[in-house]
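Fold this complex.
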Amino acid sequence: MVSAHATPKVQVLVASNRGPVSYVLKEDGSLESKRGGGGLVSGLSAIGDEVESLWVCAALGDGDREAVRRGVGEQGVRMLDIDPEVFAQAYNGIANSVLWFVHHMLYQTPLEPVFDAEFRRQWASYEAYNRAFAEALAAAAGDGARVLVQDYHLALVPGMLRELRPDLRIGHFSHTPWAPVDYFRMLPDDIAGQLVRGMLGADRLGFLTRRWAGAFMNTVTATLPAETDAFIPSGEGQRTEAFVPSGEGRHWIRHTVPGRAPHETDIAVYPLGADGDFLRRRSREADVAQRMAALREQIGAGRRTIVRVDRTELSKNIVRGLHAYRHLLDAHPEWRERVVHVAFAYPSRQDLAVYRDYTAEVARVAADINSAYGTASWTPVVLHVQDDFARSLAAYRLADVALVNPIRDGMNLVAKEVPVVSDAGCVLVLSREAGACAELGEDALVVNPYDVTGTAAALHSALSMGDGERGERTKRLAAAGTAVSPRRWFLEQLEALAAG
Ligand code: G6P
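Structure:
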């Protein structure tokens, strides 16, 4: 029997700075749309028809702004046209130049950071940008809707939204590491407090690993009067286990904002994995095969490959990776002519001078190695800087060794993707500072990312590993790396948020 009354749909709102679609304004005045990928996109595609979803994101560039003005858009996506100057100060000034630096520990501390009047102006923009999101969410959300807020760009949104709409179920997920408490406390005290209170406006906070969740809880207890049920060892702890839950299931932080009732926030860990089915299918398509042929040509017959694929983030440690490769060629000259370092360093955040300088340094060091060691028939480093997903998959398939050596990384999905796609098995040389190390550390060769000599030694061991062991490790890495599909990662968060 069909009910006469349709049940109201469950409403899910997602909020993130970068949305699932972007627009480019073409010369003829038309708008071209591009779809993005990632865990949230595949997660959202997994929710059924009984759920109504809305993704609130920022207009990032002129194309997006023009789309908003023309009323062009996709169903289920709302772009916020925030004043470009406010947006730039919030995104480049605070999110990318302060919060990203704090959580990835990137400052050269003798000279920076400096929290001056300019910083305060940028902070006011960060507040305004967060408020624009909170107001848009509050206006769009139906009774009791679930709202999933993403990342450091929107750390103040949970608190602001709770004030506006206490009936909502609010979650926040951090896709980055969380800074060790002493590093976080470089921020001015009022700003540190505002960030932490903003996050604690959520009912539930998600992190990629226990280590980052533990670092957050350390920060809370150092910053606010708060109670928690979790035992947190002092310091950040070792690789994986800084956050030791005192019981099964639910862990909480209770804190009081003056004038408001005490509020409890659950803390949970959701280790996002690679999308195995998608990768296996996509990496067997014709364009990937074409890119493999072109790469083989550049590498040369019979040579081993050390592959890395990154956005050119300061935290990815591409330059030390190149130094380690150079050291390998010095310490083990037997590898000369027999190995090629295939390094893909795709552009990121080029509005920031420090990113542009870093990108130039990557190219400079790669060129230095090529001119010092290269021969008529051997180019030691093949560097590509033009983003090409099919070529990345081609490199994954060809990789004998994958080098993933970030200074600090929330998870690092490349480490989880390569073993899934690899044709003949691939040894993973992995930084102990990548979140992925918690799950992959046993079958990877684990390195300290600052130790160039140690990384070179790991590259040598990786290149020397026998096929049998390499194949076994690759299988286990692929299984561990796909244990939590993006869909499962997303749906589990959604269910937990609904359960309260
Ligand atoms: C990385 C991080 C995410 C972050 C994103 C922003 O992928 O893992 O936590 O949201 O960078 O990048 P964007 O290009 O938008 O600045």
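Residues 233-249 have pLDDT under 50 and may be disordered.
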